[in-house]
Amino acid sequence: MDAKFLEILVCPLCKGPLQLDKAKQELICKGDRLAYPIRDGIPMMLESEARELAPEEEVQ
C-alpha cells in the first residue's frame, strides 16, 4: 500500500489515524480498536467489514 495513500486515510467512525499491519493486511484504528481488511490492495473502509480487536491483541 502506498505510504502517501495511507497518510490520507482515516477511520470512518472516529476520523483518527490508521496503522498498517502488513502481516495481516489490515488497517488498524487504535481509538476504536477496529481492524479494516485490505483485499486485493483495496482497503474495505466500512464498519460492517471491520473486525473488533480482541483484548489480548496488542495495538502498537
UniProtKB/TrEMBL annotation:
It comes from the Bacteria. HAMAP family: UPF0434. Belongs to the UPF0434 family. PANTHER family: PROTEIN PREY, MITOCHONDRIAL (PTHR33505:SF4), ZGC:162634 (PTHR33505). This is UPF0434 protein PQU95_16920.
